[in-house]
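Thanks for the sequence, V.! I ran DUF3006 domain-containing protein right away. Repeating your input here for the record:
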Amino acid sequence: MYIIDRFEGEWAVITTNDRKTFHLPKALFPAAKEGDVIQIKVIVDQAATVQRKDRAKKLFDHFFDEEE
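Predicted structure:
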């Protein structure tokens, strides 16, 4: 469980069940208030990951391509 403990400037301070804390941008929680329980879900965007890797490879190849 994740709870919004408080807001500090532009940051939301999130507390876990085992009393660990971490910060996330306050902008992610426009309607939330202190004490609200939140759910956090992380999804890997496979298509964007592939595109990013392809672009990085193209840049690498462009700058380090050996011409004969």
